[in-house]
Design brief:
Elements: H1 3-9, H2 16-22, H3 29-37, H4 40-44, E1 53-55, H5 62-78, H6 84-93, E2 95-99, H7 102-122, H8 132-144, E3 145-147, E4 162-168, E5 175-182, E6 202-203
Parallel strand pairs: 1-2, 2-3
Antiparallel strand pairs: 4-5, 5-6
The chain binds S-adenosylmethionine.
Length: 215
Amino acid sequence: MTVTEKTVEEQLVKSRHRVRTYGEVFTPRHMVEEMLDLVQEDLEGPGFVDKTFLEPAAGDGNFLVAILRRKLHAIEKQYPAEQWRQESLFALASIYGVELLEDNHQDAKAIMLAEFLRFHQKRGNPGKRDTVLRKAAAFLIDRNIVSGNTLTGKTTTGEDIQFSWWNRIDAAPGMVQRMPFALSSLAGDTLDFTNYASYQACQIETVHEEVRADV
Ligand SMILES: C[S@@+](CC[C@H](N)C(=O)[O-])C[C@H]1O[C@@H](n2cnc3c(N)ncnc32)[C@H](O)[C@@H]1O
């Protein structure tokens, strides 16, 4: 099969109605890769694991998963194997998305989790349904890839879209502190962390336990 045939096989449009109503046309895979080549330094240069990306119209997650794939590849090349678990979770924590349509939103989350688990399965981590790694990864994906409208900053039920800043604690390897903020505060000079719960610092592999600091 030629490259051209492969490209034609990709489904770039689901329906005319969705194109007209939501502007839903997917970027072909080769273009996604070419665009990411432009920010290669952020995906594999110094500090790449924690460099943040926000996809405001996430679609089925095609950009998000390509970003994750590159970061995982760079982690494998640049970190010792014993750090892959925690660094791969920090990589997940750095990738954010918003998507209006629920089917696309679910697809985007699923493709991220599958990519993450595939990376670990291929390298000897079972990544089964009940593992800590899987729970932490699914939790980070759920918090970071949200259903809503980027333009209004609201979820489909009318609440403010809430993201979290996953603050890596440099002095303590693997430790993170979750700091929630509203997407709308990204438009201002500083993120506003004041309106939400605060959480205790913890190992990133236990972040899904959500231990609060304010209760
Ligand atoms: C043109 S597609 C692009 C998808 C993906 N970014 C790509 O390039 O392949 C636009 C996507 O954005 C979503 N979308 C449209 N308006 C949006 C909004 N205001 N907030 C969040 N998502 C939106 C649509 O549902 C659709 O999945």
